Amino acid sequence: MAEANLNKFTNVVDEGAVQKMLNSRLNLKKYVLENSRQGDIQNVIDTIDKFAWTQQWLMNIGDTKGKILDQAIQTKKPKTVLELGTFLGYSGLRIITQLSPDTVFLSVEADAQSAEIARSIFEHAGVTDRIQVINEYTDKVIPRLSKDFNIDSFDLIFIDHYKDVYLRDLKLLEENGLIKSGTVIVADNVICPGAPDYLNYVRSNSNYINTFHETTLEYRNDIVDGVEISVRK
Which residues form a coiled coil (predicted)? Predict the structure, then answer.
């Protein structure tokens, strides 16, 4: 899943740079463990941002778009959160800083190496007990979420995994009753590399109120991207 997801960026980021990023995941782990303060979540976040701006581009939501996600969480104050696409744990850390300690937070990541690195970074940041990382494909996990985790529905869902399955997984969440009135859905990279079928669905669906936030691709100032926030009526 991770390699397929990364390949979606080759239209806008040099293919060699994308492969280098894939190969540098362990370098990020080493950099974070050596250069950030253990137990200091914000310092770990800042260290990942520094790595991505100065050492190697990363495909997590990043510092600029991350503020859009922060604001959505602050506004909603969710008690149940689902993240599709843990990657290396960056967005999970940003989300955790906005949550109350009693919030249920689940994050799904298909790639085993990325999940392992994320867990290591969560442990270093001191938040292992606040987030459940599920190493499995989303289409396998979503139908089991209610039963396996005693979840009725989610207050906030962050979608940032393989762009071609944004729409499939949104529909799976709907079909399994995990989206209720008031559920906030934040979708990253809807312009670059893009999720046009997802955008068409939520924007033409009378069940959602949508807001588009135009910005730039993570850790780039020269490529347009955007975050779509959809609220279930």
Answer: none
Distance between CA atoms of residues 105 and 79, nearest Å: 8
| pLDDT tens digit sequence for 186-219 | 999 999 999 999 999 999 999 999 999 999 999 9
Q: Measured between alpha carbons, how far is 76 from 152 in angstroms, rounded to an integer? A: 17
**Candidates 3.90.470.20, 3.40.50.300, 3.40.50.150, 3.40.1030.10; correct CATH number of 2-232?**
3.40.50.150
In 46-119, beta strands by DSSP E? 80-84, 104-109
Pairs from 112-117 (Cβ < 8 Å, separation ≥ 24): 113/2, 113/25, 114/2, 114/25, 114/86, 114/87, 114/88, 115/86, 117/25, 117/26, 117/28, 117/29, 117/88, 117/89
Q: Are 105 and 131 in contact (CB under 8 A)?
A: yes
The conformation of residue 192, written as its DSSP 8-state character, comes to I
Q: What amino acid positions are annotated as catalytic residues?
A: 160, 163, 188-189, 218
In the predicted model, is pLDDT for residue 92 greater than 80? yes
Model pTM above 0.70: yes
pLDDT at 220 over 90: yes
Q: Which helix (H) or strand (E) holds 210?
A: strand 208-216
Determine the Cα–Cα distance for residues 83 and 51; give it in Å rounded to an integer: 23
d(CA 2, CA 141): 17
